[in-house]
Specification:
Mean pLDDT: 81
Shape: globular
Low-confidence stretches: none
Helix content: over 70%
Number of strands: 0
Structural class: mainly alpha
Radius of gyration: 20 Å
Number of helices: 7
Largest sheet: none
């Protein structure tokens, strides 16, 4: 197996383990009674539960797989693949919560997978130059800045009341 494929496999394993850990720990924490759900009492309650330790072991194994992937593969390949932990956690969390995933959930999952594929393919995750000149970063910075501004504007205008401060201003028409 080529080194890049092994790094990708280890990164996907890490993503799956981290997703499993998050789902198990979230499910375990949700069962803690309200009177024990604060501060040190919460921690003491959780460390007495085997499911919490299962999640912790999965976290540790996930970080070890991530470190191994980064040890042999490119950062540009490994780190984006860790985003797939969301794709693993989505159906797992829904199943454990006893609910069906909506069509919109699946649509966003497919969109995330597609965006990740485009990123990895266009990024060419092979060894190369460690540093890029600022002019190389400028187009990406402009695009990301525009996307970020669009997200902020969309969030601002998505509800009748804006979340921009105590006055609860409305978005411009």
């Amino acid at each position: 197996m080529p080194v890049t494929a092994l790094a990708a496999a280890l990164a996907l394993l890490a993503a799956a383990l981290l997703a499993l850990a998050a789902a198990v720990q979230q499910r375990t924490a949700a069962t803690v009674p309200d009177d024990e759900a604060g501060g040190l009492r919460l921690i003491l309650t959780l460390v007495r539960r085997p499911q919490w330790w299962t999640g912790t072991i999965c976290d540790t194994a996930g970080f070890a797989a991530q470190a191994a992937a980064l040890g042999i593969g490119s950062l540009l390949l490994v780190q984006p693949l860790l985003v797939t932990s969301l794709l693993f956690a989505l159906p797992l969390g829904a199943r454990w919560a006893g609910r069906q995933l909506r069509r919109a959930d699946w649509m966003w999952a497919v969109l995330l997978a597609g965006a990740l594929a485009v990123f990895v393919v266009s990024g060419e995750p092979t060894e190369g130059v460690d540093r890029a000149a600022p002019r190389e970063w400028l187009p990406a910075g402009v695009v990301l800045g525009a996307v970020f501004a669009g997200c902020l504007l969309g969030r601002c205008c998505s509800s009748p009341r804006s979340r921009l401060g105590p006055s609860r201003r409305r978005c411009p028409p």
